[in-house]
Design brief:
Layout: H1 3-26, H2 28-58, H3 71-105, E1 110-114, E2 120-123, H4 125-131, H5 143-146, H6 150-158, E3 165-168, E4 176-184, E5 188-195, H7 197-232, H8 240-270, E6 279-281, H9 283-298, E7 303-308, E8 313-316, H10 318-334, E9 341-348, E10 354-360, H11 367-370, H12 382-388, H13 394-404, E11 408-414, E12 418-425, E13 430-431
Parallel strand pairs: 7-9
Antiparallel strand pairs: 1-2, 1-5, 3-4, 4-5, 6-8, 8-13, 9-10, 10-12, 11-12
Length: about 450
């Protein structure tokens, strides 16, 4: 038997023995009375300790644990130790939480902790500024009740957080945020917001600078090219060196004009005010036009094949798609040696996606270059690019055009065996031949 039970039964046992000793002397009634009074006093002691315990339970954070008596003294002593340890742990946790709050408050990003239902559990001061939140009042509120921009709500519903969302026009008219959601702890998510207003302004200045400089260059280049062509046509020009110099001047001036045209095209595509004007694009007919243009560019040096495996149309801008398609076709011809094959294909996938692809048997591209192909002026082989007359902006233009059409550019290539460039349009842009949306 443990010490506790020994102590618990010691008093009733001794009281019972005392009553048995009194019984022969005073009789049964006095013995029972003595035993009853003793047990009653014992019960009153337990009730007094129990009352003290109940009072402590009503506010354990501020009141001290009672001292107690008898068996309760040991129990209260153990409880007091546990309470002190609990308070110590809570103080440590509070200190750690305070340090975390200080650390997150010092971050250059806004941080919001969301639960599985997108309810706010906590946010730092910068997030309060970004979204107009109140760190105390808005706890437990759904973030979409407070940040109601349609693109933000759609971003949460779509649950595709691979790419950040650029959110303009939040609670501050000139504030531009880059938003990223990160899942953690099973069902919770971190909403990270960064103020990119300054970067957007710099990017706008860069676009405006490129557009303005390109416009300013176009006129003098046109004048210079006109005079070069005039000089080349002069019949009295007999000096071979002069003719060669004029030929080089004409070629380089034309190349600069192409570069200016591409820069202006990029500036137009990047301009947010340039809204995409959509129409029903007859891609099969556009493919036939591309086929003829490819044959003209190749001048009989390549075997060009046209494969139209679908009569589907797409919703988009005919001029922009023609520009993107012809860029891929001209690249395939330029980087495929004479006698090589170029295949233009328009097809449809079982999931409703439609695909424009250009496959060539050209020089191919090493894997380390593929991810950077759409960067401006990026060259896989600079000397080869100069020979073919490219501006280095063609694939950048393609990227911006397909982004405006919610399409994706896929590249498969192997050095020495050729490349396949594919533009994959989402099913929602597919239009049946009859003209009705599927």
């Amino acid at each position: 038997m443990s010490d506790f039970w020994q102590r618990a039964f010691a008093f009733p046992f001794l009281l019972f023995l005392f009553a048995l000793l009194v019984w022969p002397i005073a009789g049964a009634l006095p013995a029972a009375l003595i035993f009853g009074i003793g047990m009653s006093l014992r019960l009153l002691s337990h009730l007094r300790n129990l009352a003290a315990f109940e009072k402590w339970l009503s506010d354990p954070d501020t009141q001290e644990v009672p001292d107690g008596s008898g068996l309760w003294e040991d129990a209260f002593s153990q409880l007091n130790k546990l309470t002190r340890q609990r308070r110590k742990d809570r103080e440590q946790h509070a200190a750690a939480l305070h340090q975390m709050e200080q650390a997150t408050s010092a971050l250059p990003e806004g941080v919001v902790i969301l639960d599985e239902a997108d309810r706010i559990e906590w946010c730092n001061p910068l997030a309060e500024h970004h979204f107009g939140l109140d760190g105390e009042r808005d706890i437990g509120q759904q973030i979409t009740y407070l940040a109601r921009q349609p693109e933000f709500v759609q971003y949460l519903v779509k649950k595709d957080f691979a790419e950040p969302l650029v959110l303009r026009g939040t609670r501050h008219d000139d504030l531009v945020l880059s938003i990223k959601l990160i899942a953690y702890g099973g069902s919770k998510r971190l909403l990270i917001s960064r103020d990119i207003t300054h970067l957007e302004r710099i990017e706008t200045m860069r676009r405006d600078f490129v557009a303005n400089v390109s416009h300013e260059l176009r006129t003098p280049l046109t004048v210079v090219n006109g005079f070069v062509e005039t000089l080349q046509d002069m019949p009295q020009l007999e000096n071979d060196m002069a003719r060669r110099a004029l030929q080089l001047m004409g070629d380089q001036t034309s190349r600069m004009e192409n570069l200016v045209d591409d820069l202006l095209t990029l500036s137009r595509l990047e301009n947010e005010q340039n809204v995409l004007i959509e129409e029903k694009v007859d891609v099969p007919e556009l493919m036939r036009t591309l086929y003829e243009e490819g044959r003209s560019l190749s001048n009989g040096q390549h075997r060009i094949k046209l494969e139209i495996n679908s009569e589907a149309r797409v919703a988009g801008n005919t001029g922009e798609l023609h520009s993107a398609f012809v860029n891929l076709v001209s690249n395939a011809i330029r980087y495929t040696p004479p006698g090589g094959d170029v295949v233009l294909r328009w097809s449809e996938q079982p999931d409703g996606h439609t695909v424009f692809s250009v496959k060539d048997s050209g020089i191919g591209i090493a894997p380390q270059h593929i991810s950077r192909l759409t960067e401006r002026f990026y060259r896989v082989d600079r000397s080869r690019s100069r020979e073919t007359g490219g501006t280095g902006l063609g694939l950048a233009i393609v990227k911006h055009i397909i982004m405006r059409h919610q399409a994706q550019l896929e590249v498969a290539s192997e050095e020495g065996k050729g490349s396949t460039f594919s533009i994959v349009f989402p099913a929602k842009r597919r239009i049946a031949k009859s003209g009705a949306n599927d």
